[in-house]
Globin (Cellulomonas bogoriensis 69B4 = DSM 16987), 136 residues
Amino acid sequence: MTSEPQSFYRAVGGEATFRRLVEVFYAEVARDDLLRPMYPEQDLEPAAQRLRLFLEQYWGGPTTYSDQRGHPRLRMRHAPYPVGPAARDRWLTHMRTALDAVDLPPLARATLWDYLERAAHSMVNTFDDPHPLEHR
Ligand code: HEM
């Protein structure tokens, strides 16, 4: 990793920014009828913590994610969950709402969004979307 992501984590406000991002994101997931049932735990807080620690590490913050979870291998970790185009689009919609809530300078926002969009596309592991009646 270059020194750029290190300064990115700091430049966007460090932990507080990622906390807020993930807090808003999971508040949206909590009321999403397609995504919410995919999360195995009743409590979304541990999942929120894993996402926050991963993102902090990715952008040059503390390496707590890998200290606790090992190598991210995110595609492998998502294999148990059917991530189709509809799930991906919902995920990105909630991330956009979350990004709106953190109020970053335009370049930082664009950088983060570009990454999240590419990452979400790379996580797709099925092209079957659940039938609207099957995930209620
Ligand atoms: C594209 C749509 C996506 C869906 C529907 C989705 C869904 C899920 C679900 C159901 C889990 C399991 C909850 C848990 O126990 O942590 C999970 C875990 C996780 N996701 Fe996603 N995800 C998506 C994309 C992404 C992307 C783009 C990233 C990263 C930029 C990401 C990062 C993570 C991380 C870090 C974990 C925890 C992995 C672990 O340490 O076990 N996800 N995701």
Remarks:
- The pocket of protoporphyrin IX containing FE is lined by residues 35, 38-39, 47, 50-51, 54, 69, 74, 77-78, 81, 83, 87-88, 91, 119-120, 123 (CB under 6 Å).
